[in-house]
Amino acid sequence: MSETGFQIFNQTYAVAAELVYAGLLTAFFRPFLPRDGTRRRPPLVFAVYILLALFCHRAALPQGSFGLVLAVVLLAVSNLIGLERSMVFLLTLLYCNARISSGLMVESLYFVLERLLPFPTEPLEVVFFRASVLVTFFLLSHALLFAAMLFALQRRLQTRRIPLHWRELCYLSLVPAAGILFGQVISRLLIEFKDGVLLQLYERHPALLAVVPVLALLFYAGAYLTIAFQQGMAALREEQAAHYAEYQQAQAIRARIHEAEQFYARIRQLKHEMRSHLTTLKGLASQGAYASLEDYITRMDGSMSSLALTLQTGNPVTDVIVNDIRQRSLALRIRFQVDFHCQSLGAYDAFDVGIILQNLLQNAVEACENVREDARFVALTGARRGRFFLIEVKNSFAGEVVFGQDGLPVTTKQEDASMHGIGLSNVRRAAEKYMGELELKAEQQVFSATVLLQERSQL
Fold this sequence. Notes:
This protein is of the alpha+beta class. About 65% of the residues lie in helices and about 10% in strands. The strands form two sheets. A five-stranded mixed sheet has the order 3-4-5-7-6, with helices on one face. Helix 3 packs antiparallel against helix 5 (about 85-115) and helix 9 (about 210-285) crosses helix 12. The radius of gyration is 35 Å and the shape is rod-shaped. The protein starts with a helix and ends in a 5-residue tail after the last strand.
């Protein structure tokens, strides 16, 4: 390879390297970018990288400053990208840490390979060819290792979404930030010139040839494990919130059951007193005390109307829940249709069925609040068929339902977001206790939730 050819190779290599790293950054960001029709946001990340690479090259910025400039610019255009700034910062930090860590690991391999290949002093064509082969090997091996590390981080982040508040972001940033600083220090020490003599770190300290890549790998692994730990903590918090909400619902159901028991006791008492009431009515009628008779009947009518459960499903727990939701629906002018029967729950726990009904009906009523009054409706159907119990709730809704990776709708509520969106998770958990499943559909502004339960075989 001639000197002119080697110069052309160097220029081509620099462009190819930046294109590779820009492509890896774009691929790393891509799964986390929103999908909104025709707007293509991944190329925006690619363009930002390329423009910054050109700017930093022309401005001759200090070594190691590119990552900082990249982070600042990506944060500035986060709204255009469609990501929260905390997520943009984390992804950029992980990208830079993985790039430096993989570069240090490949650098040690490059040093060994350079020593293994014979170093000719002439002709110059061979020297240029050897140098071009080595740097090509470095770029390819670095790109492959870097891509593998980014892919592992990407899959880890996609496993579970982490709420990136300032505290969680600080935890997640500590290890990768330390890895970046370590990489910058080592990069400056790899090659030095002193009194016109080239000094290489690994020649002066051969032990570091193994220590540096191991430390770089540990910084990368630390960042990966920190993400896994935070995801585990987020899952634990969600599970605790779900159990707390389920406990609160069970307590509310118990309180309403106690009220229902008092209601039925009052009915039995009224039935027992009915003979006395009839005797009093006959006496007033025989005496011709019609004014007193009318007043007495009015007071009896008020007493009877206060003890009316309009809908009776055949079980005290479901009676209470369905009638409560009906009263709330009437207040909101929602058409409430019921065809639900459960005279005998059999092996199904009344509280599990109650939690399923409570969550499905509550979500349905809340969804109807955003619908115009003439289109509001909630329809509940359910019955046992042999060993199976089918429950279905349909309701009208406005807007669009977006389903998350877990198959459940993504909540749009901002206030106390950690406590929202767990109702359907509780329904699914209750269904799984009976080898059942929850199926959700949203078609033509009608949302339907179907729960199929089946009794366990009695061994």
